[in-house]
Amino acid sequence: MLNYALATAAIREQVRYEEAELPLKNGQCRSRFFFHARPTQTVCLFFHGFTAAPYQFEPLGQACFEAGYNVLVPLLPGHGKAGNWNRKQPPPLTSDPMVYHRAVAEWLGIAKMLGDRVVVGGLSTGGTLAAWAALTYPQLVDRALLFAPFLGHKFKPVDWLIKTLPIYFEWFNKDAPGNFGYNGFQMPALRLFLEMAEDTVKQAKRQPISPILMVCSESDPCGICKAARVTNRQTQRQFFQTVVQQQPRSCYHCFDKRYKIRHRMMTQMEGNQYEDWVIHLAKAYIAQEETVA
């Protein structure tokens, strides 16, 4: 218990120091930790979306804590930093996938110290990271929660744009409610997630992966091209079918378009009036009897 108390205190203090040095764009960008007084059976590790920050997992993180889990929602590398970011001075988002790979591995190691069973989850590109973690570390990840995972676009010219053009881009929906992250980005910083997603989808056909819950929505407009969706539901379903063949406890749910649940589905603050539905699905899946992959 003493070692656990010291570990949780050290995590909080180290992250507080690192984020004070950045400094952060605003308080919504700080990492969130929900720690119980003693180790828990289950630890949840959640990754926020591209150009966003940990505020996206505040409601789900709090709900999981109240359900008896330790929860970590770290700020991802290059995100949340204060600055006058624009076309001439874009935000400091890396184009090197190894930066994210190392961060995921580090946080998985930390999560494992705080409980027996690690559940990873993420929204959009955070879902891409969670899927990558489930594929790369199936012995550590008990299951993964993929919320509108970024696995490519249905509108193929958007994929071509992401892979080819080294441009600065501002989100069409940058002024949407609850946006506390960056308004724009250099395209190579998003390209790495598309390439990571393509490789994960391909490798999942040949190697073990943890069980997954995939949550999607038919109302998922694209912030890059209004003619396209953020995510490719066909690719999402194909990826799910690959996983469920080896992990039959995997689950898939897609919200009907009449509910108008957008890509940023994790909070009311970002426009999802059915936030509780997402939380209910996640908690129900986490609470299932522990799966042996």
Name some characteristics of this structure.
single chain, 293 residues, alpha/beta, Rossmann fold, 7-stranded mixed sheet, two-stranded antiparallel sheet, 8 helices, 16% strand, globular
Compact overview of the structure:
It is built from eight helices and nine strands. It is an alpha/beta fold and 293 residues long. The chain has one domain: 3-Layer(aba) Sandwich (Rossmann fold), CATH 3.40.50.1820.
Detailed description of the structure:
With 293 residues, the chain is an alpha/beta fold. It has helices at 2-21, 58-66, 97-113, 125-136, 156-164, 187-203, 233-246, 275-286, and strands spanning 32-34, 40-47, 70-73, 115-123, 141-147, 168-170, 184-186, 212-217, 251-255. It has one domain (2-286): Rossmann fold, CATH 3.40.50.1820. Helix content is 38%, strand content 16%. The strands form 2 sheets. The chain has a 7-stranded mixed sheet, sandwiched between helices. Helix 7 links the parallel strand 8 and strand 9.
Set down the secondary structure blueprint.
Elements: H1 2-21, E1 32-34, E2 40-47, H2 58-66, E3 70-73, H3 97-113, E4 115-123, H4 125-136, E5 141-147, H5 156-164, E6 168-170, E7 184-186, H6 187-203, E8 212-217, H7 233-246, E9 251-255, H8 275-286
Parallel strand pairs: 2-3, 2-4, 4-5, 5-8, 8-9
Antiparallel strand pairs: 1-3, 6-7
Helix pairs in contact: 2-8, 4-6, 5-6
